[in-house]
Amino acid sequence: MVDATPQLKRKNEEATPQRKSKKQRKSEAASIQEDAATPAATSTPKSKTNSTPRYKSKDQSKATAETEKATKHEILVNESTTAKRPTKAAKDTENIDAQAHATEARSKSSQKKSKKEQKNDTAIKGEGQDAAEDKAVAVMEPLTQAQVEKALKKRDYKEPKKQKNKSDSKWAVSPLQGGWFLPTDPIFSVDEKYLILADLNSLQIYSTETSLLANVLPIGGKGVLTAYALSTTKSNLVYVADSHGLITLWDWVNGTKVGRWDIGAPVRNMTVVTKPDSDEDLVFCHETGNNSQVINCHALRTKSQASKTELKRVLKTSSSIRGIQVLLQGRYIVLNTSDSIMVGKRLKPTHTAVQDFEYIWREFKFSKRVTTFSAYHRERETSKGKKPVVDQRDVLDFAVGEETGVVFLFEDILATFAAIEGAQKGKKEKFDSAESLRPKRFHWHRDAVGAVKWSIDGNYFISGGQETVLTIWQLATGRAQHLPHLSAAIENVVVSPSGTSYALSLANNSVIVLSTTELEAKTNIVGVQSRRIDTQQQSKDPNGNKTNLDIFHHVPMAVNPASPDELLLTVPSSQPRHKNEGLRPEPYLQTFDLANHRAKSRQALTRNNATEPNVAPEGGKIKEPSAKLLQVSHDGEWLATVDEWVPPASDTGFLNEGIPEFNEEERLNRREVYLKFWRRDEAHDQWKLAARIDAPHFFEDVCGNGKVFDLVADPNGAGFATVGEDHVLKIWRPKTRLRDGVVVRGADEEGLVTWTLERSIPISDKVDVLEGSQQSLPPRTSRLAFSTDGSVLAVAISWASESDVGVTHLIDTHSATIRRSMTEVDVTALSNLGFVGQHLVFVAESLTVWDMVHDQLVYSASLHTSGLDRIERIPLIRFAVNHDDNTFAIALPHFEKNTSSSSKPKKPSSTLTIYDPDHTSPLWSSTSPSITLALAARKGESGFIALDSASCIRAITPRATALQLPTPPPEESDGLREAYTLRDGGEEQEMQEAGIGSVDVAEDLTQDLSEDKAVLNAQLLQDALDDGQVLPPPQVLFGRVLALVGGVGSGCV
Asked: What 3-state class would DSSP assign to 199?
């Protein structure tokens, strides 16, 4: 045996310094305890140089209060750092923490006290402190500002780390994509190479040359973006305001934050001008309070600027302000309310101090609702040879659009005000009627004017509205030039700085840039155009008891299996913000690229009014058909859609016989229903119509078109199945078109394909014929689901009778026969149905999972939807199945009562939950503040894609896990422990024994694998070779046989 004495001696020598240091730490801890037990009055000696007072003196507090009253807001983040600077009390506390850091007990007590003071102190000091306060801080702080900020950064860094561990989950949610652009004017960069837009979550910079996204500036936090404006002094800076009252100054070129200010109120509109006689910005903000609207002038300054942050209130009114425009460096302010225009003029135009910005206001009212306006400052022309007048009067021209489609032109309105000023002396009310000012009328629009803007030279102005026509009005001739057939209504018009381009914001969430000479599109930026639900759209029914839920109905959406990053969804043609039309038709198909965050294409699925008159002879708007259902085949080659159009009640008055129920039934029987099949055209990147089936579910007895309840795609072949109101299940398959036995070929020499009805299966609501039938009554709803291999088709029927629990039929797709009828599951309030592996999932009054192999219930869980009963929630629940990982997701809607006001609509929210059919507890769950309108499974990978009522898309995917090596079976763990157990003896002998043990284990594992031989099942081999009517390619057949022979998956038994 080897002598271990030298090794022990060496270890003892190395341990001696460690024991000494340990003893020293014990003595220090004892002294700390003694110091902690000493009274606080004697722990710190009184000294003028070492004392650190915690609070300010009365004079200092008074000076600070006066400064806060004058400014009311300070800088939170400056150019050098984006971290929050501490308050005055927080600085003092941090100094005490740093000085007492030598003892652990004092440090802990100081940190607790610091957190308490930071919680109570809500005002955050910054760069706007006056000189007296800065001097007091310098005396009270023995530590440098850098050390304080460093300590705060360390403390702030630890808190989110703990929160991250608490919220750790196996599923991750991607950042939101899409969302509607804000209803504000787009902003051109000075060189017109970029266009700045914003949605609720971020500021987006697009290239005008390529129409691609160049940069994204996220707002961060829980607030939403409300307004933004470009700096007038530095073109690379932009001010961004959010709903929490924070204004952030961004360098949009570099993507960095320059400054941040808390103004304490949400900003609705914002405009920036240059301060007179300086190179600094003045930010005019429209801020909203509890019962008032305020216009404030902010001088927001950063650390690098010598001047301080200032605030001046310009106007406070109870009227709702819709827009604001500032002219001549703040000399004039023009704003509009719902029925008036207000003009403010500075009383002291020669004074440049912010506190001298005081205004006198003049208001003139309109008889109709004002929708938009634009003000223009016109330079006064002087005759040749005459010197210009030094103190000449300003000339302002106004163009105001109203809801009747009229544009009023007020020329030199200041002169008009001066003319009537003498007549209104002594009157308190300073407003006039717009008609008394005798404006010019420009009337071409037949609906409300959406936008109006002056040109750079003031010779013409541009207007647009619901007619999807851009109109250019020449002032000299009074004639109008039109650009018709835009894709949607015009909501905003912006003229570029050079006047060579127009930027138009359309009511379908798109922005186009037109050249002023050719009026051709140079830039086209398109967002997600799905149904947008605003708060004002949540109207109540005529009785005023319940919220109208039609706008929350399902949006047809699917993922393209041929390109998993492509999302297909139906969209309306136009969604004007100032019109509450309820549920709009959705006649278009939009393809959105999730990987590149942009829309790829948009095409019509039904007839539309893009180039046709959309007004009936009686003056009502002609509604388009709406796509109700959408599915893509398993290979992405075919697209099936169902569109429906019901004649409006106003057009069926000739059917009125005095019975409302009969009139409604006759109107529904005259609906138009089309089942369309589209084939993918890769060359033109669109879908081509291949076949159209008129009235796929027709009522023979009443000669009416029945509604299509559900549409599903065959998972293993080209085919679709539909179920309708006529109690018939139909399976549709493609077929080569023949003429006299010869294949009909198209232009590309390929055989033309048509779609025909392959199977028609009548379905019943009863298992026993003696029980009677309710087929004379229409079903409430019906749902379809294909099994994974496509051999079984399940159809569940929910009837209008509350006493009938409904029935679910299992149909053999090859023989078109009903193999089993299930009444064990109550489907009275059926919402969705789907196969997940060998399980059939019912989403009805409760979530039910049924094992089809063992024919037994796996589990049933209740579904809670606050504010909705079980019948109301049927069309609002979303369901999707991912066959790649055998999971399914459910989105449940919630409508909570508004506690602030009973007149306001209910607060909507949605809970998305992911389940495994083998476990009752969900895998993941999350709640969002908007209703989920569509839910689809990702193709070729795990996860789901959700679309909400704000037109935002998010992907829910499992988190990536660390790669784990395969472990041996449990019964061999004892042998492994024996092989790696160290025995007494030399090191060489131990390694040899361990190596022999490893070889033995490897041999045992190899022997076990060789004994596990693959046994081919004849049925599995037949299923692998037989794939329906069309034989698969040889590579696919070879792969299937190889999988069976190699013992992969279910090939071994």
From this structure: coil
Angle between helices 131-140 and 88-99 (to 10 degrees): 20
Mark which of 466, 498, 523 sits at the end of a domain.
466
CB 681 within 8 A of CB 688: yes
CATH number, domain containing residue 251: 2.130.10.10
How many domains does one find in the chain?
5
- Report yes or no: 419 and 437 within 8 Å, Cβ to Cβ: no
**What one-letter code names the amino acid at 442?**
F
pTM: 0.74
CA distances from 879 to 577, 795, 935 (A): 30, 16, 6
Q: Is residue 824 one of the residues assigned to a domain?
A: no
Q: Does residue 435 fall inside a structural domain?
A: yes
Q: Does 341 reside within a domain? A: yes
- Coil, helix or strand for 483? strand
Residues 240 and 347 in one domain: yes
441's CB contacts (< 8 A; 6+ apart) are 406, 407, 408, 409
DSSP 409: E
Q: What is the mean pLDDT of residues 1003-1025?
A: 52
DSSP label of 171: E
Domain boundary among 408, 443, 466: 466
The CA angle 829-831-836, to the nearest 5 degrees, is 125
Nearest-angstrom CA–CA distance, 507 and 302: 38
Is the pLDDT at 285 greater than 70, yes or no? yes
451, exposed or middle or buried, with CB in 10 Å at 0-12, 13-18, 19+? buried
Q: Is the pLDDT of residue 835 over 60?
A: yes
- What are the structure tokens assigned to 375, written together? 């003000």
Specify whether 239 is located in the same domain as 157. no
Instruction: Check if the beta carbon of residue 230 is closer than 8 Å to that of residue 240.
Output: no
Q: Do 594 and 582 meet the contact criterion of CB atoms below 8 Å apart?
A: no
* Domain co-membership, 361 together with 224: yes
pLDDT tens digits along 906-941: 789 999 999 999 999 999 999 999 999 999 999 999
pLDDT at 561: 95
| One domain, residues 443 and 354 | no
Pairing label, strands 246-251, 470-474: unpaired
pLDDT band per the 50, 70, 90 thresholds, residue 995 = very low
Q: Which residues contact 297 (CB under 8 A, 6 or more apart)?
A: 282, 283, 284, 311, 312, 313, 314, 330, 354, 357
Chain center to CA of 153: 31
pLDDT digit string (tens) for 19-61?
A: 656 566 656 555 545 444 444 433 333 333 333 333 333 344 4
Give the domain range for residue 1035: 1018-1051
CA angle 128, 129, 135 (to 5 degrees): 145
The H-assigned helical ranges of 559-701 are 660-669
Claim to verify: residue 274 and residue 341 sit in the same structural domain: yes
What is the rounded distance in angstroms from the CA atom of residue 440 to the CA atom of residue 244?
42
Task: Taking residues 868-886, report their average pLDDT.
Answer: 94
Res. 169 pLDDT band, cuts 50 70 90: confident
Whether residue 262 is found in the same domain as residue 358:
yes
Same domain, 267 and 155: no
CA nearest neighbour of 246 among 66, 77, 69, 68? 77
Is residue 373 domain-shared with residue 403, that is, in the same domain? Answer: yes
Whether residue 733 lies inside any domain: the answer is: no
Of 766 and 3, the structure prediction assigns the larger pLDDT to 766
Q: Could you tell me the sign of the dihedral formed by the alpha carbons of 745, 750, 751, 754, in that order?
A: negative
